[in-house]
Amino acid sequence: MGTNLDGHVAVVTGSAMGMGKVTAKELANRGASVACWDIVGDKAIETAEEIKAAGQKAIAIQVDVTGMNQVQQAAKQTVEALGTVDILVNVAGASLGAPPGLDDLTEEDWDAVVSLNMRASFLTAKTFAQDMKKKGWGRIVNISSGAGRSNSRSRVIPYAAAKAGLLGLTRQLAVDLAPHGVNVNAIAPGAIATLPNAAWKKLPADQQRDALLTIPAGRFGESEEIAGAIAFLVSDDASYVIGQTLCVDGGHWMF
Ligand SMILES: NC(=O)c1ccc[n+]([C@@H]2O[C@H](COP(=O)([O-])OP(=O)(O)OC[C@H]3O[C@@H](n4cnc5c(N)ncnc54)[C@H](O)[C@@H]3O)[C@@H](O)[C@H]2O)c1
Question: Which domain holds residue 217?
Fold first, then answer.
């Protein structure tokens, strides 16, 4: 038992910035070797360099996680550099500028947002699950959203739909993989304050104030608070936590 990750190899998607970056550094702090995957290659390199400067092992790979060929190529590079992957954290996600509501939403918006926020986690899980099963130990954590548990404050329909679908994917993967020692869980972050791209930051000031009134903690969350929850879920301490969605949202949703 414990939360030490010595000897483990983790892939963190979306680790060029935001929660993914903080998570990659947190898992490395706890002993994991970390592959920092992101579509923004130079920023992913920065994350990996910061981890290496702190004395841990890391590599950066530029990859678009919505394409199976790229995912498989990135997986091959990761295994060659760090060894077999037994921890996968799917953080990459965004509403990609899709408009609020239905009227202006296009088929292209729908496909792009669903592909990134749901399909990509299927592609990465499919890529790494066999090795985890062979090892008899693995952890997959998918980053959903309060939007996937209830509704989206920014009213982006495919984002809410994909994040809800991601919770279904999490539960069904959990059923499939638990007999092999591979635990799959999800985290549903609330409004996270420190992130430059957070959708809530685009809301008008009065709506931001109203949003705060709905959070019992009375404040927005920090990336470190998401990373800490992820670090627990990928550890041995979470050995009997399977198929769950952990809301890390200051008490915004309680159900
Ligand atoms: N910020 C919030 O308040 C909030 C709330 C709930 C859920 N979330 C979810 O948490 C996760 C992290 O959010 P964040 O605010 O840190 O986002 P962010 O925009 O700061 O980081 C997302 C990262 O994903 C990368 N990415 C985007 N498309 C990619 C692709 N096709 N392939 C590879 N990488 C790609 C980006 O380059 C970026 O580095 C996302 O899944 C987001 O939907 C965020």
Answer: 9-248
